[in-house]
Amino acid sequence: MANMLSVRNLRIGATVYPPGEAPKDIEIVHGVSFDLERGKVLGLIGESGAGKSTIGLSALAYGRGGVRITGGEVLLDGEDLLKADKKGIRQIRGARVCYVAQSAAAAFNPAHKLGDQVIEATLEHGLMTREEARARALYLFNILGLPDPDNFGDRYPHQVSGGQLQRAMTAMALCSNPELIVFDEPTTALDVTTQIDVLAAIKNAIEETDTAALYITHDLAVVAQISDDIMVLRNGETVEYGPVQQIIEAPQEDYTKALISVRQTKQREARDQSQALLSVNNVSASYGNGFKVLHDISLHVPRGQTLAVVGESGSGKSTLARVITGLLPPTDGSITFADEDLPAQHKKRTRDQMRRIQLIYQMADTAMNPRQTVGQIIGRSLTFYFGLRGRKKKERVQELLDEIEMGSGFYDRYPAELSGGQKQRVAIARALAAEPELILCDEPTSALDPLVAEGILDLLMRLQAETKVSYLFITHDIAIVRAIADSVAVMLQGRLVDFGPRSSVLSPPFDDYTDLLLKSVPEMELGWLEKVLATRRMESAGN
Amino acid sequence: MNTVMEDGKPRRRPLKQRYPLTVLILQRLGLSAGLLLAVSILIFGGVEALPGDFAQTYLGQSATPQAIANIRSQLGLERPVTTRYFEWLGNAVQGDFGKSWASGNSVSEQIGKRLGNSLFLAFCAAIISVPLAVGLGMLAVHFRNRVPDRIINIISLAAISLPEFFIGYLLILFFSVKFGVASFPATVYDGMSFADRLSAIALPTITLVFVVLAHMMRMTRAAIISVMSSAYMETAELKGLGAFKTIIRHAAPNAIAPIVNVVALNLAYLVVGVVVVEVVFVYPGMGQYMVDAVTVRDMPVVQACGLIFAAVYILLNMVADLIAIVANPKLRHPR
To answer: Where is the ABC transporter domain (chain A) (predicted)?
Structure first.
């Protein structure tokens, strides 16, 4: 069968503007080639900066920002898109090649109804009459499993949920009957229980309509469910390219192997979990408008161990951390730390009480002053809590930098000069500087690439072994829970649905929601999605 | 997530959630009315607290205390402040601002004509400045960070940095005195032809345009840039829509609210800021009238002018708010 899309030796460049220097041109994709047959799905996988989105968009002859295609060929049915003029490219975009963005919430225009936006490209290219396009949209809403498909198109983007928007975006891409769809991390921004529905809907729609797709993601387990072929990318180059089965079951390259082996158990569960360092006793909390966000939460973090708090967005897990730090005083209940009651408000706590509980945030970027050097950022805690100054302070900062495996060369660097993983390490060092007994980690790895996240988790575990610090680790990622937790708390809509040692929470008999959560996490296993869907069908047939 | 939404029974939600638009609009109306009432108290109190006294100014230094007392009782000034305030407010609500102490004429009648003149001037300035500002804003976006953008920015910033009386005098100096192409003073009278009237107000109009242009232009530029960089503009481009359709269909509906907002705010400023310009150009509008009245302590006129200016300002701000509310699909179509 002839290849529908053929990319030959694609080179993509961009102009960067380093602060204080002249703009310079760099190459971000260095000669990538692949083929895609009609009705097949190719997964592009890699870390951020690997060039996967840029490669995906090249199928629409589009470069985001200052990005432009500098060489190679993008052949759509043998025709080189890069040689087409503006008008020729416009006729292809939205008609023969469509794009599904990562954040559908931003990609839909808030001022127009969903239905109008879904059929817009189809009408624009004169592919169908308005009635035909509407009928097609309705058909797509149906196969994508959207609620109330007849009226779905009359709603505005803000009136539907994130998962529904992502499916609507898929409908928008499918509407014009394109030959190729580029999916750019379509499920990354969704909760796991939502992701599985969207994934199933996309897979089903691709099969029904016999469209080819480029599926871009950083999650190998997701791409394994949906692709026929996989291309692993790193720094704008192909690492490995082959059929999905070969990549998952017999990877050749070390990098691919590392990606697959990520998230394996690091820590054996501690046996004795009775010695509580921090206890949260029947805590409820509300925001200023009276909206109750936490309902009667009771749990404890054992000394020198890790409690993982899991839940989806809006489950109240970050709020719990705010309550523990005293940023949001609870309306009810109390918090005990090392056998003494903690004042509800952080202002009423002593400096020593504050020192013993430290925080690490999800976005290390925004949690650091961009105008301070690494040395100042870490040194601040030393002065604030221990009154260290001058040479003593500097020596201690150097020690801490060694602890986080960064070395003293970073002392005078600014956060902007660090990578995402390095910034998070500095944030950890800042927390460590206070010599805390408990560190609240609020999704510290969720903004990082898998291998970098892995390094951070290893570091945290090593530090725990060395300093006996306890962690309250907030995450939505069950794999992390499996890897590092001693005990687990599962939260849903501000309530604690399950709490106990990891082995008891993560093995049967399950709480209903925990079960759903566990079953929704994609596994690095071919046919996993089908298996889960089949189980679901059986269960619903059984009811 | 869906299950929660789907099985959701039609529970009765608070009014605010069911009709957010109506509730918000009613709120704004009520707020505006309350604000106007507060302003009326401030105006009356402020005028009352002004140093000097009408009778004293009117009769001159040599007036006997008896004569001053007579005038005061004639005007009813010996009655308590609250009585006079409520009487004044009651009449003002019905459109009667009393009689001018200086001339004895009805204030409402005199204001009617002058308000017309002022609004005409502000209207002319608006008709020129709004399209010009929006056009220049779009031009600036088109040439973003390039030479034309910089020039537009510098000129409009320079214009806003100069006080309006200074611009006014500069214009008079060059166009009336040196080149003699424009008329000064900007006198208008009944029975004047429309063309003459326009030529008479040319300089004050230009002055006002200079004053409001920069703000509107820069806000337009910012609004369009923020909309153009949103993800849905990329979506439109990737649908193969042409540049023109992309802007009209996808950028305009979202940029309109902030632009209309800043336009309305500037119109309000136009109507109120007209005071200084009128004095500079000796234009027979509200501003000139009010300034004259303040010098002779003609309280009913000062109060009436103050209240009308406040009302216009509040009204235009309210309109700006309402348009921004109505343009927001989240409020027009609640969940």
So the answer is: 7-260, 278-518
